Amino acid sequence: MEYFVVIFFSLLLTNFFGATAINNTVLLLPLLLFFILELHEKAIFKNYLIAVLIGLFLSMVSCYIFNGQSLFASFKASAPYLYIIFYFMLKRINPSIPEMEKALIMLTIIFCVCYVIQFLIYPIAIFHGGEEVYKNDVRIRLAGQGFSSLGYFFSLNKYILTKKPFHLMLSILYFGVIFLMGFRTMLAMIAIFTFVIIIRVNGFNWRLFWYSILICGVFLAMLQIPVFADKFDSMLERQETAVLSNSKYIRVIQFQYFTTRHFKNIWEYIFGSGLPFTQKNGATSAYSRYMYGLKGRGIDWTDLGLLSLSWMIGLITVLAMIAYSIKAFLLKVPSEYYYIGVWFIYLVIVSFTTAEFFRSGNFIVQALALYLVEKANHYYIVETHI
Question: Model pTM greater than 0.85?
Answer without folding.
Answer: yes
